[in-house]
């Protein structure tokens, strides 16, 4: 099956899964879900396991693959593929009945160097009736519901060339040290972009850079549990011809935790010094 067709079928599965997750958000079956004040978000949500299992079960009827991302070998045969499915991306938004949360699917393939890289990315936002999908070499598209029906459109990043007057988004986890790093950068950036936004989740923020809503997005620490969301958004960014790297300008590695910055490629050079300054500050504190 061609990658584009495979991506479309995976997107359809994500949309079906999203209906179940949205229904659970609107009408929770567990009264404990209403007690959000003391929730440990690091443990995810009860819906996460059901969501992932539903998606994996459906994917088995779509195309042959070698297994799940979490069960991948250290070194896979070239061409072997593994689906990567996470839980809800944006658990706090979901728990607080906000619309900005996503269901994500990505497909990793081992290359001739024994490195697994994402080649398909799906980011579906059920509450906004919005789906982003991309496949290697096929470009990236956005599917959205309008009063006239479903609309599919190719996406590309903005053409903003300067940090001054741009729109920049940032992310941070619930961990204090991650939040401090992000807010330090925001403090130093203040006054240059026209707006600095913090909405999330990471997968949707990446897609908003890909479609030109944001000019750049950065986050100081994406954890292993963020790989499903980050990899799905990464394929959308790459196929839309945006730029994605770590804060130092290096490659994203999927077997370790990363700081990341995504941009239209035009404002990156002006944004990068702020990120490098924060990295230097953190290294000095650790010394």
TrEMBL record:
**Which coenzyme or cofactor does it need?**
Mg(2+)
GO biological process: any one? signal transduction
Q: Does the UniProt entry include the keyword DNA-binding? A: no
Annotated positions binding Mg(2+):
88-89, 226
* Keyword tags: Hydrolase, Magnesium, Metal-binding
Q: Name one GO molecular function term.
A: inositol monophosphate 1-phosphatase activity
- EC nos: 3.1.3.25
Known Gene3D superfamilies for this protein?
A: 3.40.190.80, Fructose-1,6-Bisphosphatase, subunit A, domain 1 (3.30.540.10)
Protein name (Swiss-Prot/TrEMBL): Inositol monophosphatase
Native organism is: Bifidobacterium cuniculi
């Amino acid at each position: 099956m061609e990658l584009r067709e495979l991506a479309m079928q995976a997107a359809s599965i994500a949309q079906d899964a999203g209906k179940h997750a949205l229904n659970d958000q609107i009408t929770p079956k567990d009264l404990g879900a209403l007690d959000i004040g003391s929730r440990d978000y690091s443990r995810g949500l009860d819906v996460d396991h059901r969501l992932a299992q539903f998606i994996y079960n459906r994917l088995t009827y779509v195309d042959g693959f070698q297994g799940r991302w979490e069960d991948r070998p250290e070194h896979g045969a070239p061409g072997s593929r593994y689906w990567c499915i996470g839980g809800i991306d944006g658990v706090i938004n979901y728990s607080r009945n906000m619309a900005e949360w996503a269901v994500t699917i990505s497909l990793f393939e081992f290359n001739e160097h024994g490195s697994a890289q994402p080649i398909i990315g799906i980011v579906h936002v059920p509450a906004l009736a919005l789906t982003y999908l991309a496949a290697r070499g096929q470009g990236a598209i956005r599917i959205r519901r309008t009063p006239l029906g479903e609309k599919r459109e190719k996406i590309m990043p903005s053409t903003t060339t300067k940090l001054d007057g741009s729109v920049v988004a940032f992310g941070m986890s619930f961990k204090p040290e991650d939040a401090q790093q992000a807010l330090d950068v925001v403090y130093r950036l203040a006054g240059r972009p026209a707006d600095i936004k913090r909405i999330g989740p990471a997968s949707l923020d990446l897609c908003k850079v890909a479609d030109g809503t944001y000019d750049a997005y950065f986050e100081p620490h994406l954890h292993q549990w963020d790989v499903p969301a980050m990899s799905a958004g990464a394929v959308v960014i790459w196929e839309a011809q945006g730029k994605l790297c770590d804060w130092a300008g290096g490659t994203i590695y999927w077997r370790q935790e990363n700081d990341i910055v995504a941009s239209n490629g035009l404002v990156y050079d002006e944004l990068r010094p702020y990120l490098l300054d924060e990295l230097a500050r953190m290294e000095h504190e650790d010394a």
